[in-house]
Amino acid sequence: MNDTLLEIRGLKKYFPLRGGFLSSEKGTIRALDGVDLEIRRGETLGLVGESGCGKTTLGRLVMRLEEPTDGSIRFAGEDILALKGAALKAYRGKVQMIFQDPYSSLNPRKTAGGIIGEPLAIHHPEWQGERKAKMAELMAVVGLDQEQMTRYPHEFSGGQRQRIGIARALILNPGLIIADEPVSALDVSIQAQILNLMKRLQQDFALTYLLITHDLGVVRHMSDRIAVMYLGKIVELGAAEAVCGRPAHPYTKALISAIPAVDLMGRKEKVILTGEMPSPAAPPSGCPFHPRCPFRIEVCDQQEPVLLQRNPGYWVACHNSEVSINTLQEV
């Protein structure tokens, strides 16, 4: 039995850059530049990288909120880019999203019950008689009281609003939930509660998560596997413990070494990056990471590395075999 739920091949998304009043710059922004990725049923795949690397764009493409420039996306074996009309509507019921900002992602004119029940009203209007009971059930599941169903978003705390967003995502029994920075807008004291809730719901409802975040602490706590993205490309992919415990790509090493905490991840070295991530409108030649890489070698300047399987289930895009392969042999 094939356990692959989502399969992405050669995915690209380019945006035209048009000159404005203050700038005459023109060109193309390569938000995604050839991404291959698979998500297995029942797992959490963490997608991590700096702001602007293309993580959210990938989530929007999977949701069909944006159309790709090139590539393919298959969900449960079905080509979702070919879907239209009723078939596309049905697909969007199977894939739901938890948004980053629990303040702006909820309609302030709707009650909590109305927000949670809206997907059911859109996709299954014939279930009108059962809607209120389903809404109450989901509120209890995410830790809210049924009496709060008639309250409006401004009457809830940030953590409670995110629970409403989670209940809304669950009500259609989706196969895949895309969680885009689901706790970054919340107080630190609330983040662990929401993450633990998501883990419990995954077990109870057999959910599959695509977790998009810049926080490696969050992604390590939640994920089975981690994909590291840089400038629209996947540069490292493997089991969470291996990626966090023995990172093979210099960029992943730098992300982990930058975590300001007691050494809980077994990191042995400090990798300091210089400069900022290049613009996706003007990516460097060769390896996109080479201008910032402390381990670059001559080939990095001219030739782009390919994402290759270095160990079973572990993929790295790096020319410097001394950095990547030797590190992996310690895993």
Fold and architecture overview:
It is a single chain. This protein is an alpha/beta fold and about 325 residues long. It contains ten helices and twelve strands. The protein starts with a strand and ends with a helix. It has helices at about 55-60, 85-95, 110-125, 130-140, 160-170, 190-205, 215-220, 240-245, 250-255, 320-330, and strands spanning about 5-15, 25-40, 45-50, 70-75, 80, 95-100, 175-180, 210-215, 225-230, 235-240, 310, 315. The longest helix is centred in the middle third of the chain and has 18 residues, at about 190-205. It is about 30% helix and about 25% strand. It has an eight-stranded mixed beta sheet with strand order 6-7-8-3-9-10-12-11, with helices on both faces. It has a four-stranded antiparallel beta sheet with strand order 2-1-4-5, covered by helices on one side.
Helix-strand sequence: EEEHEEHEHHHEHEHEEHHEEH
Average pLDDT taken over every residue: 89
Q: Please tally the β strands and state the result.
A: 12
Shape: globular
Summed up, the helix count is: 10
Major beta sheet summary = 8 strands, mixed
Contiguous runs where pLDDT drops below 50 for at least 5 residues: none
Strand order of the largest sheet: 6-7-8-3-9-10-12-11
Range of strand content = 15-25%
Radius of gyration: 21 Å
What percent of the residues sit in helical stretches (DSSP H or I)?
Answer: 25-40%
Quote the distance from N terminus to C terminus. 29 Å
The helix/strand class is: alpha/beta
**Assembly state of the chains shown:** single chain
